[in-house]
Amino acid sequence: MNAPTATAKLPPPMVEAIDIVQNYAQPDGSTLCVLDNVSLRFERPGINMLLGPSGCGKSTLLKMLGGVRPWNVKTPSSGQIKIEGALCEDAHPDTVMVFQHYNNRPDLTVRENVLYPFQFHEWKRRVSRQEAEARVDAMLEEVGLSDKRDQYPSQLSGGQNQRVALARALVLRPKVLLMDEPFGALDAQTRSAMQTLLVRLHQAHPCLIVFVTHDVTEALLLGDRVIVLSTQPAKIIDDFQIPKLQPRSSEWLMGAEVREWHDRVVGHLRASGGRGSLRVSV
């Protein structure tokens, strides 16, 4: 008789949120519930869109996923965040965040800004100075800023500054990239160019991206997966995959399949009630 075959143990999810609740004490003594029993699993690299009305709690959840904790508030109020199976209660070295306000240091050049994270102990330990500088130069080429390397943020456009922020994140080769409405302040043409750049960079440097937006079109254009949150207290009201491979064209965006997804998302959000705005950019 043959011996029984051992079952291979599956690796843990890259990121997992388990029964997340977030409450905030109010001045009048009441409690505001922002996130209500949210559970998510991110198994593998891909672009995951966290879509919901403005102010619904998307950014609060995103920060938790990277271990970002405000000093004076317990987050989450209950539940757990795990990264590769380990409990995450503080900033995690394999997660990097990109914000709408790109936070480039005005006193540093473009190249110095992208090189800046390698000044910290964790990245000095992981990456030699020679490799760090080589990575920075290659990344500046990838984001189209090699000719701006010696300029300062004040000399750049908004789109160019966001390219600097994206380069500074990806040069670390993170396992998890968290993006908080990074293109929300850009004009339509620049936003479209940045969306195209993000897809190209993700194909060259695969990682798990969780991207917060309240733009339905952006979610459908970029997402391999779209997770829809309700208005406060935020709950997951839809979660679906988009099988269409990247890059996706404007013609595809105008097609019947996308219209069905759009109507589905908007219908769910209307049914959930409450306040908050969405945007449709096409």
Overview of the molecule:
It is a single chain. By secondary structure, the protein is α/β, with parallel strands linked by helices. It has helices spanning 58-65, 110-115, 121-126, 129-142, 158-170, 188-204, 216-222, 250-253, 256-272; strands at residues 15-25, 31-42, 46-51, 78-83, 86-87, 95-99, 176-180, 208-213, 225-229, 236-241. The chain has a six-stranded mixed sheet with strand order 6-7-8-3-9-10, with helices on both faces. A four-stranded antiparallel sheet has the order 2-1-4-5. Helix 5 runs parallel beside helix 6 (188-204). The chain is globular. It starts with 14 loop residues before the first strand and ends in a 10-residue tail after the last helix.
Strand order of the largest sheet: 6-7-8-3-9-10
Number of strands: 10
Radius of gyration: 20 Å
Largest sheet: 6 strands, mixed
Portion in beta strands = 15-25%
How are the SSEs placed, and which strands pair?
Blueprint: E1 15-25, E2 31-42, E3 46-51, H1 58-65, E4 78-83, E5 86-87, E6 95-99, H2 110-115, H3 121-126, H4 129-142, H5 158-170, E7 176-180, H6 188-204, E8 208-213, H7 216-222, E9 225-229, E10 236-241, H8 250-253, H9 256-272
Parallel strand pairs: 3-8, 3-9, 6-7, 7-8
Antiparallel strand pairs: 1-2, 1-4, 4-5, 9-10
